[in-house]
Amino acid sequence: MPAFRFADRMLAQLDELGRISESPDYLCRTFLTPEHRAAHETVAQWMREAGMEVEHDSAGNLVGRYAGATPDAPVLMSGSHLDTVRNAGKYDGMLGVIAPLACVADLHRRGVRLPHTIEVVGFANEEGTRFGASMAGSRAIAGTFDPAMLETKDKQGVSMGEAYRAFGLDPAQVGSCARRPGSIAAFMELHIEQGPVLENKGLALGVVTAISGARRIRVEITGLAGHAGTVPMGQRQDALVAAAEIVTYVETRCTGTETLVGTVGMMEALPGAMNVIPGKAVFSLDIRAAEDSVRDAAADDVFAEIARVCARRNVEHKLTELYRSTATPCHPGLMDAAEAAIKTQGVPTMRLPSGAGHDAATLAPLCPVAMIFMRCTRGISHNPLEAVLAEDVELATATLLHFIENFHPVN
Ligand code: HGY
Ligand code: MN
Ligand code: MN
To answer: For domain 213-324, is the CATH number 3.40.50.360?
Structure first.
């Protein structure tokens, strides 16, 4: 006899998805790869078993549809992403697809049709791991897909457009899955918090108030490669040392201001030989805040510092903005409904902002959005140590089912 109504099967499904990876050593499932297809096919089968019609859309998203009681029923969409970062945990994104799927399976088992249609979406490329540019799938559904993204390239020099073609999709048609404004009544995303707040407060679930806006920039510093043994220290144009000065400035500038954070997650020194002074350094900048003005002021200061360091070190720099999202408030009416759903489970809750970006923010131009956060162990995420409690998964799914069954469109 399973211990839980939902969590046993959900955790087994999450384990199964966690094994679909580009590497046998860690979880990494990126956009438009065989693993993307395998994961979507696996979830598509679970959707069919739950009585859903399944579609793989023009952008590479997976869409499951559980029709409402009437043909003109409004659509409540729920979901999250099925792609991962490199060396990922197995709950970031996936939980937000498996949970609404479990809710629909329960409705299907009981033969229940609601006054609204439910769509469960497994979004593609929320993380942007392969091409740097992220949110391609949810942008396409929201009608904000930027074809310039098709020019971004992966480490092998393959463009997103070429990857779409190799995947069997027409890059010129990516945006054709855009939904008409008004066609989706609301979007609800369940997601692990990916931070320590809920756990520190002893809470299993929280209601998200707003989702931080992020800017992602690729920085290229070009100096002069040289012999490590012969070029005197005062005559070098060392691209990596310039980059190192900038990295520590990012930390200094982004420390001490409430929700402002700055991260350099990727760094490459070229040509990458022990006895060669790096002629080139390429690194990523990720700057976020709950207010766009705070984020943009920090970004401007970092760009100014990059120019100063490069001038002093006689090296060149090139900045390429890969992604920008705006800080997104969640819908007050949906927040209240989410809070009411949590309280029906007899547990306390709180409201909190999201420092992480989510598909929900991308969908905000299309429809009212809301998120429920679920506690994760020590707040760890983007790390194989990501972990959840089965009791919390059960509670979160029962809450989501209550939200879904009692959903009313909001203005
Ligand atoms: O980067 C983020 O905030 C999210 O994990 N894509
Ligand atoms: Mn993530
Ligand atoms: Mn995520």
So the answer is: no
Q: What are the backbone angles phi and psi of residue 246, rounded to the nearest 5°?
A: -70, -40
| Distance of CA 85 from the midpoint of ligand 2 (Å) | 6
Query: Ligand 2 center to residue 335 CA distance, Å?
Result: 22
pTM for the complete prediction? 0.91
256's enclosing H/E stretch is none
Q: Is 79 exposed, middle or buried (0-12, 13-18, 19+ CB in 10 A)?
A: buried
The angle, 0 to 180 degrees and rounded to 10, between the axes of the packed helices 95-110 and 7-18 is 140
**Ligand 3 center–CA 302 separation, angstroms:** 26
Q: Which amino acid is at 49?
A: E
pLDDT tens-place string over residues 16-67: 999 999 999 999 999 999 999 999 999 999 999 999 999 999 999 999 999 9
Integer Cα distance of 97 and 335 in angstroms? 20
Q: Are strands 328-329 and 117-123 parallel, antiparallel or unpaired?
A: unpaired
Looking at CATH, the fold of the domain delimited by 7-212+327-405 is given as Aminopeptidase (3.40.630)
Cβ of residue 119 lying under 6 Å from some atom of ligand 1? no
**Torsion angle of the four alpha carbons 195, 201, 204, 210, in this order, in degrees rounded to the nearest 10:** -50
